[in-house]
């Protein structure tokens, strides 16, 4: 198993955990965005 494969699997697990927590409504979308590196943007 290569390093890239391992890192991708870790990212996938982190994303799934964040997604589950959001579905349970324990986190706001702003917090989710910050955790995955996406920020709010005004137009």
User: Gap between N and C termini, in Å?
Assistant: 43 Å
State the helicity in percent bands. 55-70%
Mean pLDDT metric: 85
| Shape field | elongated
Beta content: under 5%
Low-confidence stretches: none
Total helical segments: 2
Helix and strand string, N-terminal first?
Answer: HH
**Structural class determined from secondary elements:** mainly alpha
Largest sheet: none
Rg to the nearest angstrom?
13 Å
Tally of strands: 0
Task: Describe it.
With 43 residues, the chain is mainly α. It has two helices and no strands. Helix 1 (3-23) packs antiparallel against helix 2 (29-36). The radius of gyration is 13 Å and the shape is elongated.
Identify the notable features of this structure and list them briefly.
2 helices; single chain; 43 residues; mainly alpha
What is the element layout, followed by pairings?
Elements: H1 3-23, H2 29-36
Helix pairs in contact: 1-2
């Amino acid at each position: 198993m290569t390093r890239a494969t391992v890192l991708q699997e870790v990212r996938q697990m982190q994303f799934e955990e964040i997604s589950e927590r959001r579905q349970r409504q324990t986190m706001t979308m702003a917090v989710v965005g910050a955790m995955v590196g996406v920020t709010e943007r005004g137009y």
